[in-house]
Amino acid sequence: MSVQIQPDFSYTIPIDTVGVEERVSRLNKRSIKKESKLLALKLALSMIDHTTLEGKDSEGKIIQLCNKARIPYAPLPDLPPLAAVCVYPTMVATAKKALLGTSIKTASVATAFPSGMAHLSIKLADTKFAVEQGADEIDMVISRGEFLKGNYNFIYDEIAAVKEACGRAHLKVILETGELETLENVRKASDIAMHAGADFIKTSTGKVSPAATQPVTLVMLEAIRDFYNETGQMVGMKPAGGIRKAKEALQYLVLVKETLGDAWLTPDYFRFGASSLTNDLLMQIVKQLTGVYQGIHYFSND
Amino acid sequence: MTDRIEVLKTYKTYIGGKFPRSESERTYPVSDSKGNLIANACRCTRKDVREAVVAARASFDGWQGRSAYNRGQIIYRIAEILEGRKSQFTEELERTGTKTKNAVTEVESAIDRLIYYSGWTDKISQVFGTINPVASSHFNFSVPEPSGIVGIIAPDDSPLLSTISLLAPVLCGGNTCVIIASEKNPLPAVSFSEVLHASDVPGGVVNILSGYRNELVDSLTSHMDVNGILNAVNDENIVKLTEENGSINIKRVYHYTAENWLDEIHESPYIIHPFLEIKTTWHPVSS
Amino acid sequence: MADKLKETMPSNDVNGTPKPSSPNADTAEQITMLWEYSPAPESSEHISISDKYHHFIGGEWVHPEKGRYMTTINPATENKLAEFAEGTSEDVKRAVKVARKAYEKSWSNLSGKERGKYIFRLARMIQEKARELAIIESMDGGKPIRESRDVDVPLAAAHFFYYAGWADKLGYAFPGRKADPLGVCGQIIPWNFPLLMLAWKIAPALATGNTVVLKPAETTPLTALKFAEICMDAGLPDGVVNIVTGAGQTGAAIVNHPDVDKIAFTGSTEIGKIIQKSIAGTGKKFTLELGGKGPLIIFEDAPIDQAVEGIINAIFFNQGHVCCAGSRLLVQEGISEKLIKKLKDRMETLIIGDPLDKNTDIGAINSRSQYERIMKYLETGKNEGAEMYQTSGSLPENGYFCRPTLFTGVSQSNRIVQEEIFGPVLTIQTFRTPDEAIEKANNTPYGLASGIWTDKGSKIFKTGQKIRSGVMWANTYNKFDPTAPFGGYKESGLGREGGLHGLYPYVNLTPV
User: Fold this and answer.
1) What is the mean pLDDT of residues C450-460?
2) pTM for the whole structure
C-alpha cells in the first residue's frame, strides 16, 4: 500500500441532494433490454453477498445458504455462483466448510455488529476471531455516534486498527448511511474509510432503515472515483439492505458503469448485500430465457 | 430709492449630478403664452444625450442596489424639498401662462404624486413578485428588477406635473433615467433638477436635458445603452421613430399620454410595471 | 471513462488482480464480457403521419392558396417524413379572418369557466397522445426520445393545465384592473421545442380569451399539425386555433397583417429585432423570446459533481438547441482543472445517436443549415486560437450529428464566447473573484438565463441580484415549469411566458 497524506476530514465536500437525486433518476431511465439485460442479470447474480444475520441463525441455516450460493438454481447449472455468503463470526467456520472447493468467499460481520457500541479491544478481538475462523472478508461498522460528534480521527484510527487486525482478509467498512442522514456525511465517512484502508465501502447493516439507496450509493461511487483519481487505488462498493428486485439491481449496475466504468463491474469491486434479491434475479433470468413470467414457488427459498 | 435689478436665472442641464451647459454652447428662447421671452434654455445635442446616458449607467448599480426603503425615503425627500419651494415653482408656471390657481394645484399634485410613488418602492415586489409552486424539488420565486436606463420624453402640458408623473414610477422601480424636458416649456423641469440635487438623489440617477425633440429623440431612443423609453408625447412620428429605434436593442417602449395630468388615474403601479424585468430564481430544496 | 480506466488500472491495487468468480468457464467468460446497453429503439410503427398536410384554418384542413408544399425530414436519417403547406399572405389573411370571426362570434361569448374547460380538454388529450407526440417530435426534430417523452410533452400538457385554470380567475391576477383579451394573436415558434413552444404560446392566449394564428417552424411542423387534430378531437370551436405552416415569409405575413392584435415570437434576436421594427407604429402588442449566451458560474465551494451534471444539462440538453443554454462556463481558478477533468469524464458517458433510442443522450442536429452553422463556429473557434476538445466514439453515418464540444483558452473577445452557437458547444473561461465572474457574466448583450453553483446561500443571492438575466438557476439548470415565468433582459427578449406574469402579454388592463 502506498503512503497517503491524510486529508483534513473536518472539511466538508458540499453535495446537493436534489442534484444527486436527479442524476439517479436520469440513470434510472437507461433502458436495459435483450442480451444486455440477460448479461446484467447474471452479472448481478455473481455479485451477491448472500446474507443471513439473525439471532436465530444456526448451522443448518448456514449450510442451506451456502448451497444456494453454490448452485443458485439447479435447472440452470451454468449460472454463476454468488460472490460470497455473509454471516456472524460464530457461523464462519460452518460456512467456510460448506464452501470448500468453490470460489465463493466467506464474509463475516464483526466489530460488535450492528451497533458497533463496544470498546476497540473487543472489536479487534471480534475481528481476529472471525479471521481465525476463516473469514475471507470482514464487514465492520463505524462508530456513528463518534462520527456525528465530529470525532473523525477516532473513526479513521478505528478503521485503520481493524484493517490491521484483518490481516489478509478484505475489509468492508459499513457506514450505516441511514444513521448518517446527510449525503455530505456519507461522502465524508466514505473518504475517511478509504483513506484508513477500506477495500470496500458499504452502505448499511440492513438493521437500520433506510438501508441502501441509490442516491447514497451514487455519492459513495463518486467518492471512490475521486479516490481512484487521487491515489490510483480501486476501492470496491457494496450497497446492502433493501435491494430486493432485479430491476433495482440493474439500476445499481448502471450507476456503477456510468460513474466508475466497466473496470468496477466485477464481483471484485462491486457487491450486493442481499438475500431475497437472488431469487428475483433468477426469476428474471429464467423469464428472459423462456419468455414466460415466473412464480416464486418455483425457486428455492434458502 | 431705485428699484432693485432682478437677477435672471441661467437655465442649464442636469447631468451626473452637475449642472453643465449644453456641450453645443447654444440656447433657444423660451417664451410665455404671449410670445415674450422668459429665458433661454440649453439646446442640447446628441453629445449631451451621450453624456447623460453615461451618467445614468454609472449610477444604475448603486441606485438599484439601494434598499427599497431607502429609495422610498429619497423620493419622499424630493417631495419634502419641493413642498418647501412651492412658491418658486408656482411662479415659474405662472410665468409661462398657467393661471395662479392652476399653478398651485399643479405643484401640489406633483408633490402628492411623489408621495404616492415613494410608498410603492417597497411594495412593488410584493404586488408584482410571485412564489411559484413548481412541480420539482425547487424553491422558485420571481421578483421585479429595474430594466436599466429609461429615456423619458416629456410632454408640453403641465410641464412640472407631467415630468414628475413620468419620473416617479421609473425611479420607483429602481431605474435611472434621462429626461428630454418639454420643448415648449422646459424651465420647470430644469429647475426641478435643483430639487433633485438637494434631495439625496445620487448624481446621475436623473438627468434632464432641454432642447429640440427632433435633435434629441432620435439619439436617445437609438442609444444602445438605453433599455427603455417612456414617451408621453402624442405624436405619430415620435411614436414610430421611438419604436423603430427601440428595435435595435429590444428596448421596452411604453407610450403614456394623458388628457389631464391632475387626474389620479396617473397614480398606479401599472405605470411602474413596464420598466420592470421579472427575474425568476430556482434553487433546490434539500438538506 | 470506462476504457481509459481499464488502461490505467494499476496491476498491484489493494484488491489484487481481478479473479474469475465463476467455476464455470463459459459463464465466466460471458460475464467478463463488456456489459453494453443493447439498442432500445422506441417503436414508431403505430405512429400515423400523413404524406401531406394542409393548413388548419377554421377547424378544417385548407389547401394552400398557391398550392405549394414544403418537405420536412428526419434529421437523424435525412429521410422525408411529410409534405406540408407553404403559407402565403393570402393563406394568412384567410386564417386571420377566421380567427377574428371566432374571436367575435364564439370565443369571446364563452364564460371564462367554459373556456377553461376546453383548455383542460386540450391538456388531457395531449396526455392521452403523449407517446405519439413524443415520437413524432423526436423524428421531426432530432431530439432524444428521453427528452421529448420526459420533458417536452409532459410540460406542454402541464402548461395547458396551468393556464386552463386561470381562464375563470383572471380577476385575481391583476389587482385593481379588469383584464380583457386583445383579439387575434399571431404566434411564431421555433424548431427547438416545437410542441412545448406551441403550448407556451397557445395556452395563455386561449385562457385570456384570445384566438390564435400560429406558425410552427419549417423544419418541425408535425407536432403542431398533430395538435390541430387534437383541437378537432376536443371540439374546440372552429377558428379559435389556426395553424398556418411555412417559412420566414409566412411568418412575416402574420407579423405584418393589420388585423393581428399581438405578435408572440420565439426565435433569434436577429429576427426579433426585425419584427419589433416592422410593427413599429402599428399599435400591435408583442412579446419576444430571443437568444442567449448564458453564463454558468462555478465557485470553488460548489457541489462539484452536481455542478458537472448541471453543466451537462445546461449545454448538452437538446443538442444545445436551447435559447437559455448555459454556453459560457466561468469557473473559479482554484477548481478549474479538477472540474474540467470531471466534465470531460462525464461527457464520455454521453450516448450520441438515434434520437428514438431510449438511451440516447444527444440526438441529431435539427437541420443541415444548423449543422453547417455549428461546424462553422467550430472552425471559427479553432481559428481564434482556442483549444477544442470533443468526445470520442463514433457518430451515425447518416444524419446531422455533432459531438459534445468544449473550447478552452478562450477570451471574452472571441466570437465563440460572444455569439449564440445554438449547438452542443461550451466555452470555458476562468475567474478569480466573484466580481470578476459577475463582470464577465454580464458582458454580453444577452440576458436570458444564468447559472450559479456555490454552497453559500448569501453568495447566491448577491451574485443572483447582480447578474442581469430573466432566469437564475442556482445549483441547477434548465428547469422549466408552467408556474415559473421565463423571459429575457436586454436583447434576450421582452415580456414573460409562464406563471402569472405570462398572462400580461395577452390582456388589456383597464381600471376597475
Assistant:
1) 97
2) 0.94
